[in-house]
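hey m, so remember when u said the tokens were messed up on ur end? i reran from scratch. heres the input so u can diff it against urs
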Amino acid sequence: SSVLVRELPPLPGPPHVNDLVVSPAGWGAMLTNKRVRAFDVATGATLADLTPAAEANLQALAVTPDGQRLVTRSEAGFEMWSTKDWTAVELPGSVDLDFPFGAKMGVDPLGRWLVTTTAAGNVQLFELDGLRPGPILFAGEGFSFAFRPDGAQLAVGGLDATLRIWNLETMSEVARLEGHEAAVYTVAYSPDGKRLVSAGEDGLVRIWDGETYDAIVSLSGHKGYVYCASFSPDGTELVTTGGDGTVRLWGERTLAERKAANRDFGEAVRRSRPTSDEDG
């Protein structure tokens, strides 16, 4: 069973928290519409209360792998903070993009790229150094994403029911996984990068080989959409939650049993490499 260890005091203003991140350096940050609070994870003590310069509503947080920088995103663009003294980092210019509420944001494990979704449905990269706009990897249908733990690839779940794998060295799409019947709301790699999970509006949780992209197993049980999926730190368990209000924990035994019962699953999905316009 689990017990509540600590409850943090609320931030001034609207009571809802829009986003929360925890840094490997031992601090966390939570965000409301107008304020950001950094706190010590072990003690709960407030480290800093940050008020971004932009008056637009805040939407999302991201932390760099070394824990030295915190990025906030609002309807007006990005702001960056140094966690050494919690001061703002000057950026070269503004970003003219529309970021809707609920749009996702993250930093790659190597600290090179920040990725976010936009109101246009694009999944776009930004150079972490200065947050200059980089390539758009998925135009018009992107929704969810996950970096492979080694930072070499990015998996992108689409509103078009596909799961696409991008090589971040060549900025090219290397595989397209098809099998979902509706939008893919969540994507996650196992800690060793050898497995990839996707889930979404069709209510199914699908697990793929993270190296060959072959289908491994399809898990059913949720009644309605699945909005979040994540592997345990040792990769032996998978937790999912969705619109039916349940949280489901899947273990190795469950996965093995479902895989045996779904031997034809690999035939029900398609794995393909994207074709160029010249290929037709």
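this time it looks ok to me. Helices lie at 252-261, 265-268. if urs says something different then somethings off w ur setup not the seq
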